[in-house]
Amino acid sequence: MKRRFLAGILAGMAICCTIAGCGKKATEPVDNKAEEAVEEKEEKKTEEAKTEESKIYGDPIDDVYRTTYEIFVYSFYDSDGDGIGDLQGVIDKLDYINDGDPNTNDDLGCNQIWLMPICPSTTYHKYDVTDYCNVDPEYGTLDDYKKLVEEAHKRGIRVINDTVMNHSSSQHTWFKEATEYLKSLPEGAEPNAEECPYIDYYHFSKEPQTGYEQVLGADWYYECQFWSEMPDLNLDSEAVQKEFADIAKFWIDLGCDGFRMDAVTQFTTDDITMSTEQLSKFVDAVKAINPDAYIVGEAWTASGGYAKYYASGIDSLFDFDFSGSEGIISKCAKGKADPVRYVQAQIDEDELYASYNENYINAPFYTNHDMARSAGYYTGKKAKDGVKVSGALNLLMSGNAFIYYGEELGMKGSGKDENKRAPMQWAAEGTEGMTKGPSGMDSLKMSYGSLEEQKDDPDSIYNYYKKAIHIRNGFPAIARGKCTILEGLSGDRNVVWIKDGTDKVPEGTKGAKVLIAFNNGDEPAEIDLSKDQGADGYRNLATTLVTGEEDITLEGDILTVPSFGIAILTDES
Q: pLDDT averaged over the chain?
């Protein structure tokens, strides 16, 4: 009403003013009806969007096929006003991630969180651990961690910890005792593990080698492939293996649901066979403690390389082929790759991964804390559309899908690592709970605004992401199904495929099989479903994801999908 009242005042002013000031001649009538019609159209569009947004697509199945939200605690939410995020801040924002009520969708809908390292460390990122069985004081206490797990579990959210097994901090007791022992050795004497067991915890050498640094004060060198302050651990050592089995038990006893394993390709440098064996021993130790614990590994290489690590028995490995600015998702969202390739690559990967472990669970992701944020991948008029649809393409993949915090807001950040780990954009800078971010971070302008600015905008990236996650939750085939391309319906700029998850969900579960259509062309795609028998029966347009104003329609057999549109159809039979 206020908007229309204001419009009436402005119209009156226009009638009374002269040609010079107001754009309409004084003698020209103002078309109030036309203006009101435009406003009514906008109000109707907003109400329709709210109605669609309020749909509940179903309660997600409680299994290993989840939607995981990666949190860098340092930059997430500050509960005590020191400018640094903390575990209590994560607790405070659990309802944002998932409120635990399947009858609402005010929450994002993720049902697992991955906490980047939380153990004591000398750095802001905390990947150099000084104590594997404690919480960094910047983040809180072990009691805070226990409370976080308890509150998360109440909401149906599982919690996995980032676990840095490849290396420790140079300030860890193990390394400090080992190097002090080396310094104390008489000239020409060889180290003895009976005198100092920690000497076997690391890789020491009398000769300099690639990726080694000299021990200060001694004629010895130690391996440190990442950084001089991150000495590589000797994972062949049975003592080290037992340490990490005990560490896993410590966190599982506190309620931890699993582990994200850092840098698994580096366990033994340039040796896949040895690294896989070392990973296998940790996996076996964890499963002996809790068979339901979930383990996902970071093997930063192409699928042909990281697939081999599935032989370790690990549940998941991150799917790097689809991630980043040059991955399959980005190329498809930019229109640089045929969308059929997006689906065919999933089919090919399924065959490859299953050849090493038939029980594997893929871990699709789009970006993470080491990558430039995806909002910077797209420019021009359709930049926002690209950000949206790339998020959906990640969430349409089978397995345990991962979302990096802030991607659902279209946050930006590239270049130095600190920029990629900027404060979560809850509201304007200086608002209660906003963190200061890592020291050295550049000043970043966020193109799409904060959560506060996006939450009530039906066209926002946030609301698009939220709908995509709820669709994933409500149609079990999306996370669990095997893909079959319907070649008779697919073309250069559109793909239609079936996802069948009936073998992974209880019999009779709704949404266990779906047909999905995606168009990455600039023009609408008209798809005649009668042209492929694989589409027989799929005539219920269950839900859609669109980035613009054009709707997806189904009239008889003709499915019309606008540019960047995604349609989900279910079998009517």
A: 91
